[in-house]
């Protein structure tokens, strides 16, 4: 009968070590450097992955097994990001199994019975804290744990391109990482495996299954977003998922706001009404020095580089620093492009795109000094150009691309940039364009403002953060769907 390999619930002395496997070369997708060193959302894939374990409450230590030619690069990333849980960066082996063994050797000083180890692919940078926590919980009962998700595709077995079997899909899972073990379990399995002259395995749970068959391997539910960046298309998908990962946006309390905003300097362009006024009011309420600029209140034209520079200089002169710069200014003109006059075209391009460019250029020196953040705004219409407001949707798409590019350019300077993507929002700009709309069909400017401040206080960069209403009752939802216009 199989042994359940149980032990009492994890004691305070149990040490949980995450081993990040970063030995890949990137050659399979035609890269000159390992794919774990590619940048997505302003950070390398490796840094994203290490940060997950840095923030995992149950993980005590992180060991990085790196491609031997890039150990120095990984060490530099760890140092710059301040990843305190990473104790060592070591060269990996010539195979997955050899790398695991080198990691086990490096952990040889730890007691096998009170140490857990989680092996995770460095190129799975969207692992959730829920999965990490579930793995650690499962190790309180089981000696080996895998992470997997159901297969949405039918899997076939073939022999020379001829189907030999079609397994029952309900019994199939797609394996992910981390794979978690009690150190004693994985050590014992590998010790037996190396005595087998035909030993070969693509992952560590296979080693336990073959060489320690009495140890049940428990399966924790994974997540689709915990994808592995392997092929060129995966880089594109991962980049988009990071942009749209609003679910990972931290939500701060009023006490957090006061602690983090007190004494900070916030500059808001478009701060007289709507979302901009909401951001300014919230920051001011919690102790920030807020400077509001707009064409109506201060005669500041965001499309004029001189006006932008003067506004930032004024704020900096008054407080000696600028921590956050927010631009909510924008114009929305409805109509066919072929029927739009030159003045309207120029105004839309200058306010909706050149203004963010001007603000970014002028704000950078101040934000580099404070390690601060620039926050821009887009619209759900950026994902697909739409008739009747082609200029608006295309300039909002350009703002998203600007955010992505600057997140990369500014990462080494410690300056963050993000973009808020609100659903249709009740603002004066929208009312002017569309008039009265069904009650309850619009997002409140205050909700967008609160999410905006949450993003400002986060460590996110290069993200496009969605802000959505709660689920509407059926009649209101139907009314909202009947309206074809941009989000903001």
UniProtKB/TrEMBL annotation:
EC number(s) stated in the UniProt entry for this protein: 2.7.7.60
Keyword annotations from UniProtKB, A to Z: Isoprene biosynthesis, Nucleotidyltransferase, Transferase
InterPro entries assigned: CDP-ribitol_syn (IPR012115), IspD (IPR001228), IspD/TarI (IPR034683), IspD/TarI_cytidylyltransf_bact (IPR050088), NAD(P)-bd_dom_sf (IPR036291), Nucleotide-diphossugar_trans (IPR029044), Sc_DH/Rdtase_CS (IPR020904), SDR_fam (IPR002347)
UniProt site positions, description: Transition state stabilizer: 28, 35
Entry's Gene Ontology molecular function annotations: 2-C-methyl-D-erythritol 4-phosphate cytidylyltransferase activity
Reactions catalysed, as given in the entry: 2-C-methyl-D-erythritol 4-phosphate + CTP + H(+) = 4-CDP-2-C-methyl-D-erythritol + diphosphate
Pfam families xref list: adh_short (PF00106), IspD (PF01128)
Residues annotated as site: Positions MEP for the nucleophilic attack: 169, 228
Biological pathway: Isoprenoid biosynthesis; isopentenyl diphosphate biosynthesis via DXP pathway; isopentenyl diphosphate from 1-deoxy-D-xylulose 5-phosphate: step 2/6
GO biological process, one term: isopentenyl diphosphate biosynthetic process, methylerythritol 4-phosphate pathway
Function: Catalyzes the formation of 4-diphosphocytidyl-2-C-methyl-D-erythritol from CTP and 2-C-methyl-D-erythritol 4-phosphate (MEP).
Family, as annotated: Belongs to the short-chain dehydrogenases/reductases (SDR) family.
Official protein name in the record: 2-C-methyl-D-erythritol 4-phosphate cytidylyltransferase
